[in-house]
Write a structure and sequence with these properties.
The complex is a heterodimer.
Chain A lengths: L2 H6 L13 H13 L4 E2 L13 E3 L20 E3 L8 E3 L3 E3 L9 H14 L2 E3 L7 H6 L2 E6 L8 H6 L2 E5 L10 E3 L6 H7 L7 E3 L9 H14 L6 E6 L3 H10 L4 E5 L8 E2 H6 L4 H14 L7 E5 L5 H9 L4 E4 L1 H7 L7 H6 L24 H4 L4 H25 L13 E3 L2 H7 L16
Parallel strand pairs in A: 5-15, 6-7, 7-8, 8-11, 11-12, 12-14, 14-15
Antiparallel strand pairs in A: 1-13, 2-16, 3-4, 9-10
Helix pairs in contact in A: 3-15, 8-10, 10-16, 11-15, 12-15
Chain B lengths: L1 E4 H4 L1 H9 L9 E5 L16 E5 L14 E5 L14 E4 L15 E4 L12 E7 L13 E6 L15 E4 L10 E4 L3 H13 L10 E5 L15
Parallel strand pairs in B: 1-2, 2-3, 3-4, 4-5, 5-6, 6-7, 7-8, 8-9
Antiparallel strand pairs in B: 9-11, 10-11
Classes of the chains: A alpha/beta, B alpha/beta.
């Protein structure tokens, strides 16, 4: 073959491996260079079946819709009707999930409190304990009782409006936390009884109980200390939703919070975030089934969290049987997290707006996931609170709009029959028919 | 002395009654009879009174105590004095697992033995055990002192932070990052006071001190074998 003929042969197209992708290879190189697994914040970034794979059917002849903006569609929720003498009343079916002081700045906690209070809902503390910023600005505050017991104080238990016993987290069922030393300011260290500057591990299990029977007695103790006034939530990571919900109810929970794998975290191993737990969509129906089997659906309320973003997500979670949803990551974005206005600084950190997740390094340009005083001052808690309030109101309006279209005068009247699924996977997970069929794969098993 | 019959009047009434007392109450001493292993006896107290429980208790007796002195004239179930903030809890008999867990202050005295996980995740409490303690005690302990006149079980002080452990007897094994440390004069002083406060018949010089090697304070791949 002469040279001219050789040049005429098209070269083999370079094909990158679908297994060894650029991000995979980059991670191999990073691990080889540092000897440390990737620790990051946020939730799962991989694509999993989600609420986007469901559609509402709306009303035509067989169902009768309500008039938008004219006919009332209620959104209020009561949480803790089982045992607590002072159940929580919230105006909207969306709460703010637990996010710790330490992971978040003081102004960020204040902004969450301001926004939630204006919207008529609750905020939740986190691993760092209760801050004055949050208690002062949250009309309704849920106090998390965590395995680490950092910042745990009986006075704060009594100052709370509800207590959430955290057993698991969607981003890392079975895992603890790791707040790296660079974020441990003197104030954070003081609240956590540890020296400043050292890594703080949050245990993966409660030190003083070892199973559901112990949990039941632990809940008794918490109720006795708080005079049986406050609702006791039990938060579980979305791994075995049917069985864990069953045991949480058995242990005496007033409210079960189930957090799917898209749920965020302040900092943990990437391998945990992406590879442990089940998608939020897959967790709801088994949890609801558990409550129904115990004849406790609506008696013990169910809060669903993990990747909730829009009013459509809210409406879909409620239609599948939740009483309310909880948002974390979305609330941070509403405050200004990963905002393109800080793009230049994100670039300097080697990332881009929308992808920044190294919250544990404490250099958040948006001033939300940091303890650096200069960065913290970038977040105006009043303006941030207003933004969160707006966002919560929009989500609620969206959920109401959908509910009215389905003929419902309360968002809780949404039901699985209002939904269909776009994919077989979502159909099986959500337990609603595949669009255009009456087929629900996998019925009767989890 | 006020007497409260737990069997006749119930747990809710006991805790309600004790919670309702003010700091200036003249009802300073209480006796609880017929505990019969009940859980959550005298939890969440925040008043300078003395409560003596005549008999053995179930889980979490004296949990989250502030100010009060609680004496169990018997043995205590799991989690006695868990998350105590201040005050004193004295167990005349033995204590079950996770005694004094996550405690932030005050003094817990166990005249008999304590089971596994004694002082787990302690955060400032002082615990004196006259007898032995079980395995995994002081796991992830952050602050405070654990004093053991007898022997300690396996994996003592695993993943310890800044808490100090003093043991007079043998230690079956030390947990990750826990090492024996030099007993200096300031430690003798601390120990002397604790032993006196706990009514323990022992000399500080008889004890060995254990603490954190601080190798696990920052994530380091060179310590991967310890994780």
């Amino acid at each position: 073959m002469d040279d001219a003929s050789k040049k005429a042969i098209p070269p083999t197209a370079p094909i990158k491996s679908a297994t060894f992708t650029d991000p995979v290879n980059a991670e191999i190189r990073r691990a080889a260079a540092t000897g440390i697994y990737d620790i990051r914040g946020g939730g799962a970034k991989r694509k999993v079946p989600h609420f986007d794979d469901l559609l509402f059917l709306g009303a035509s002849i067989s169902r009768y819709p309500l008039e938008g903006y004219r006919e009332k569609c209620a959104t209020n929720v009561t949480l803790g009707t089982r045992f607590a003498s002072k159940p929580i009343e919230i105006d909207i079916p969306i709460t703010i999930a637990g996010m710790s002081f330490g992971a978040l700045s003081g102004p960020a906690k204040e902004a969450l409190g301001r926004g939630a209070t204006m919207a008529g809902t609750s905020t939740t503390t986190g691993d760092g304990g209760m801050t004055e910023e949050e208690r002062g600005h949250s009309k309704i505050l849920v106090y998390q009782y965590l395995p680490s017991r950092y910042g745990m104080n009986p006075n704060d238990l009594r100052r709370a409006d509800a207590i959430e016993v955290v057993v698991g987290q969607g981003a890392k069922p079975g895992g603890g936390g790791m707040l790296l030393g660079q974020k441990i300011s003197d104030r954070v260290a003081g609240m956590r009884d540890l020296p400043a500057g050292i890594d703080q591990r949050s245990a993966c299990r409660h030190p003083d109980w070892t199973g559901p029977d112990d949990l039941e007695i632990k809940i008794l103790e918490l109720r006795e200390i708080t005079n049986w006034e406050k609702p006791i939530y039990v938060k579980i990571g979305g791994a075995r939703p049917y069985f864990d919900t069953t045991l949480a109810v058995k242990a005496g929970a007033d409210v079960v919070v189930i957090d799917g794998m898209q749920g965020g975290t302040a900092a943990t191993q990437d391998v945990f975030i992406e590879h442990v737990g089940q998608p939020t969509l897959a967790c709801i129906r088994p949890a609801v089934k558990a409550l129904q089997d115990l004849d406790m659906h609506r008696e013990v309320q169910l809060i669903v969290s993990g990747g909730i973003r829009t009013g459509a997500d809210v409406a879909k979670a409620l239609a599948l049987g939740a009483d309310a949803v909880s948002i974390g990551t979305a609330a941070l974005i509403a405050l200004g997290d990963n905002d393109p206005r800080w793009e230049e600084e994100y670039q300097r950190l080697g990332t881009t707006a929308g992808a920044y997740d190294d919250w544990h390094e404490g250099r958040d340009p948006a001033g939300i996931t940091t303890q650096d005083p200069d960065l913290m001052s970038r977040l105006d808690p009043v303006a941030g609170g207003r933004r969160l309030r707006n966002y919560l109101k929009v989500m609620t309006l969206e959920a109401q709009t959908i509910a009215r279209a389905c003929g419902k005068s309360h968002v809780h009247n949404l039901e699985p029959e209002d939904l269909c699924a776009l994919t077989i996977e979502a159909s099986a997970m959500a337990g609603v028919p595949l669009a255009g069929t009456n087929w629900i794969p996998g019925q009767g098993s989890f | 002395m006020q007497q409260f019959d737990l069997e006749a009047e119930g747990l809710r009434k006991l805790n309600q009654t004790l919670h309702a007392l003010g700091n200036d109450t003249n009802q300073k001493t209480w006796e609880v009879i017929n505990p019969r292993g009940s859980h959550a006896i005298a939890v969440g107290l925040d008043v300078p009174i003395e409560v003596t429980v005549r008999g053995s208790t179930g889980y979490y007796c004296g949990g989250m105590n502030k100010q009060a002195t609680i004496i169990v004239d018997g043995s205590a179930g799991p989690g006695v004095a868990e998350n105590m903030m201040s005050g004193k809890v004295i167990i005349e008999g033995d204590a079950s697992q996770y005694a004094g867990a996550t405690g932030r202050g005050g003094l817990l005295v166990i005249k008999g033995n304590a089971a596994s996980r004694c002082g787990i995740s302690m955060k400032g409490i002082n615990i004196v055990v006259h007898g032995n303690i079980g395995h995994m005690s002081a796991f992830m302990a952050q602050k405070g002192n654990l004093v053991v006149l007898g022997d300690a079980g396996e994996a003592l002080g695993d993943s310890l932070y800044e808490a100090q452990i003093f043991v007079r007897g043998s230690v079956k094994s030390l947990g990750a990052d826990c090492i024996e440390k030099e007993m200096r004069p300031e430690h003798i002083e601390v120990l002397k006071t604790l032993l006196e406060d706990a009514g323990a018949d022992a000399k500080p010089e008889e004890f060995r001190r254990y603490g954190s090697a601080r190798n696990l304070y920052h994530f380091d791949i060179d310590h991967a074998d310890s994780y």
